[in-house]
Amino acid sequence: MAFTMHSHSGQFCPGHAKDQLEAIIQHAISQGYKTIGLTEHMPRYEQSDLYPEELNEQDLFTTMVTRHEAYLTEASRLQAAYASQIHILIAFEAEFIREAYADPVRSLFADPRVDYFIGSVHHVHGIPIDYVKKMYLAAVQKSTRQTEESLWEDYYDLQYKMLTALEPKVVGHFDLIRLMNETPGHDPRTWSKVWDKAVRNLKVAREQDGWLECNTAALRKGLDEPYPARPIAEEWIKMGGKFTMSDDSHGIAQVATNYERGLAYLESLGVTEVWTLKRKTHPGITEGVRGEVEEVAVPLTAFRERFSA
Questions:
Q1: What are the CA-CA distances from residue 107 to residues 3, 54, 153, 192 (Å)?
Q2: Quick one: how far is CA 60 from the chain centroid?
Q3: Count of domains forming the chain
Q4: Which CATH number fits the domain that encloses residue 48?
Q5: CB atoms within 10 A of CB 182
Q6: 180 SS3 class
Q7: Contact present, 102 and 96 (Cβ < 8 Å)
Q8: Per-position DSSP letters for 104-169, written without gaps between them
Q9: 170: part of which helix (H) or strand (E)?
Q10: What is the DSSP string of 187-248?
Q11: Rounded to whole angstroms, how far apart are CA atoms 84 and 283?
Q12: Other residues' Cβ atoms within 10 Å of the Cβ of residue 142
């Protein structure tokens, strides 16, 4: 029973991703997926929060909010159209660029069509830390001590604020901060303050019954391990934390990318199952009321049965 809890389309993340949402779903079905979480990026509300390829938005607020509504409408249509072939969960990826984003996230999640959201941090000091090295280094210069170590501290402090404000079911790419680091395989345990903050955040996520995603996008971006890296993953396992599975695809070409390596990584950690959600009301909602979702454990052996690398 292969699945992903994190995916994007070019239809609703133009410039940032590729392909129409329906085509992505059709491809996911062909790959043996039984569940797919649709998690288009939430609207951004300030021009400075856009990625370079998004800067041609003429009316930022109207365009992005209108697009998000169109996404929910289309996702609901697809959820019904493909109900016999795949279990579609409707969600979004929440941004926490600054604390002011908490209220918009809550407002978007209040829509009864939405099943969950991913809590993510892509920006530190208002600067993307996963886009290009130049931006990452600019964020370093704005960090407390203008070092990579202090940027990591600031990242985990912002992530802590996100976790406590939003309590997301899925914590997106927990250690995304390592992507552009001068030493991508750097062991965070060698920076005592960074490690203390990371462990603090893991404890908060565990107390909230949140899940960390095994996110294989890290592998296609050149890292040796998925998010989270082994030191974080081992600490999470000690706490009894649960993993979900995500390809974090941004188009058809990335659906199920590196899943074989991701599964092998989890098995090397002693993980035997990953978790997903199942809607009790499927498809659609009844009388405008959010449908209940239940947590479902999927053994890695069952995941492999339906998944072909």
A1: 27, 23, 29, 37
A2: 23
A3: 1
A4: 3.20.20.140
A5: 10
A6: coil
A7: yes
A8: HHHHHHTSTT--EEEEE--EETTEESSS-HHHHHHHHHHSTTSSHHHHHHHHHHHHHHHHHHH--S
A9: strand 170-171
A10: -GGGSHHHHHHHHHHHHHHHHTT-EEEEETHHHHTT-SSPBSPHHHHHHHHHTT-EEEEE--
A11: 10
A12: 14
Strand duo 170-171 + 116-120: pairing:
parallel
Question: Which residues are within 8 A (CB) of 183 and not within 5 positions of it... i.e. 6 or more apart?
Answer: none
**Report field, pTM of the whole predicted structure over 0.85:** yes
Element (H, E) at 293: strand 293-299
pLDDT tens digit at each of 309 positions of the chain? 899 999 999 999 988 899 999 999 999 999 999 999 999 999 998 888 988 877 776 566 678 889 999 999 999 999 999 999 999 999 999 999 999 999 999 999 999 999 999 999 999 999 999 999 999 999 999 999 999 999 999 999 999 999 999 999 999 999 999 999 999 889 999 999 999 999 999 999 999 999 999 999 999 999 999 999 999 999 999 999 999 999 999 999 999 999 999 999 999 999 999 999 999 989 999 989 998 999 999 999 999 886 544
86 DSSP 8-state letter: -
The gap between the terminal CA atoms of the chain, to the nearest Å, is: 13
Give the position of tokens 């052996």: 301
Helical pair 192-207 and 230-238, crossing angle rounded to 10 deg? 40
3-state class of 45 per DSSP? coil
Angle formed by the axes of helices 60-81 and 21-30, to 10°? 40
Tell me the three state secondary structure of residue 31. Answer: coil
Domain containing 170: what range? 2-305
